[in-house]
Protein backbone atom coordinates (compact mmCIF):
# COMPACT_ATOMS: atom_id res chain seq x y z
CA UNK A 1 0.00 0.00 0.00
CA UNK A 2 1.26 3.46 -0.85
CA UNK A 3 0.04 6.79 0.48
CA UNK A 4 0.71 10.50 0.48
CA UNK A 5 0.33 12.93 3.31
CA UNK A 6 -1.55 16.18 2.81
CA UNK A 7 -0.77 19.07 5.13
CA UNK A 8 -3.06 21.48 3.24
CA UNK A 9 -6.41 19.77 3.94
CA UNK A 10 -8.07 18.74 7.16
CA UNK A 11 -10.02 15.50 7.55
CA UNK A 12 -13.29 17.06 6.40
CA UNK A 13 -11.62 18.23 3.19
CA UNK A 14 -10.12 14.81 2.55
CA UNK A 15 -13.44 13.07 3.16
CA UNK A 16 -15.05 15.49 0.71
CA UNK A 17 -12.49 14.46 -1.92
CA UNK A 18 -13.23 10.77 -1.27
CA UNK A 19 -16.96 11.43 -1.54
CA UNK A 20 -16.42 13.21 -4.87
CA UNK A 21 -14.22 10.30 -6.05
CA UNK A 22 -11.26 12.62 -6.52
CA UNK A 23 -9.16 10.42 -4.23
CA UNK A 24 -9.64 6.73 -3.45
CA UNK A 25 -9.38 6.76 0.33
CA UNK A 26 -8.14 8.59 3.41
CA UNK A 27 -7.51 7.86 7.06
CA UNK A 28 -9.99 9.49 9.44
CA UNK A 29 -10.95 9.30 13.09
CA UNK A 30 -13.94 7.00 13.49
CA UNK A 31 -15.86 9.54 15.58
CA UNK A 32 -15.40 12.20 12.93
CA UNK A 33 -16.36 9.69 10.26
CA UNK A 34 -19.60 8.92 12.10
CA UNK A 35 -20.50 12.61 12.09
CA UNK A 36 -19.50 13.34 8.48
CA UNK A 37 -21.53 10.40 7.13
CA UNK A 38 -24.62 12.49 7.81
CA UNK A 39 -23.44 14.69 4.91
CA UNK A 40 -21.78 11.96 2.81
CA UNK A 41 -23.88 8.82 3.33
CA UNK A 42 -22.11 6.98 0.49
CA UNK A 43 -18.84 6.87 2.44
CA UNK A 44 -17.94 3.59 4.12
CA UNK A 45 -15.31 2.52 6.60
CA UNK A 46 -13.03 -0.10 5.07
CA UNK A 47 -11.18 -1.18 8.22
CA UNK A 48 -9.82 0.08 11.53
CA UNK A 49 -6.13 0.78 11.86
CA UNK A 50 -5.88 1.40 15.56
CA UNK A 51 -7.26 0.26 18.87
CA UNK A 52 -10.69 1.62 19.82
CA UNK A 53 -10.72 4.71 22.01
CA UNK A 54 -13.41 5.75 24.43
CA UNK A 55 -15.13 9.07 23.93
CA UNK A 56 -17.18 10.83 26.58
CA UNK A 57 -19.61 13.72 26.34
CA UNK A 58 -20.04 16.16 29.22
CA UNK A 59 -22.77 18.73 29.74
CA UNK A 60 -22.94 21.70 32.05
CA UNK A 61 -25.22 20.95 35.00
CA UNK A 62 -28.42 22.84 34.33
CA UNK A 63 -32.17 22.71 34.79
CA UNK A 64 -32.45 23.09 31.00
CA UNK A 65 -32.11 19.53 29.67
CA UNK A 66 -32.76 20.40 26.01
CA UNK A 67 -29.15 19.85 24.88
CA UNK A 68 -28.89 16.60 26.82
CA UNK A 69 -32.19 15.37 25.38
CA UNK A 70 -31.03 16.15 21.83
CA UNK A 71 -27.80 14.23 22.47
CA UNK A 72 -29.80 11.23 23.67
CA UNK A 73 -31.88 11.32 20.47
CA UNK A 74 -28.70 11.69 18.39
CA UNK A 75 -27.14 8.58 19.92
CA UNK A 76 -30.36 6.59 19.61
CA UNK A 77 -30.42 7.43 15.90
CA UNK A 78 -26.78 6.40 15.49
CA UNK A 79 -27.45 3.10 17.27
CA UNK A 80 -30.53 2.44 15.17
CA UNK A 81 -28.76 3.21 11.88
CA UNK A 82 -25.47 1.63 13.06
CA UNK A 83 -23.52 4.72 11.98
Descriptive account of the structure:
The protein has 83 residues and is mostly helical. It has one domain (11-81). 39% of the residues lie in helices and 0% in strands. It has three helices and no strands. It has helices spanning 11-19, 30-36, 66-81. It is elongated, with a radius of gyration of 16 Å.
Strand content: under 5%
Q: How many H/I helical runs?
A: 3
Helix content class: 25-40%
Class based on secondary structure composition and strand pairing: mainly alpha
Work out the oligomeric state of the chains in this entry. Answer: single chain
| Spans of at least 5 consecutive residues with low confidence | none
What does the largest sheet look like? none
Structural shape: elongated
Tell me the span between the first and last alpha carbons: 27 Å
| Gyration radius from CA atoms, angstroms | 16 Å
Strand tally: 0
What series of H and E elements makes up the topology? HHH
Mean pLDDT: 88
Q: What count of domains describes the coordinates?
A: 1
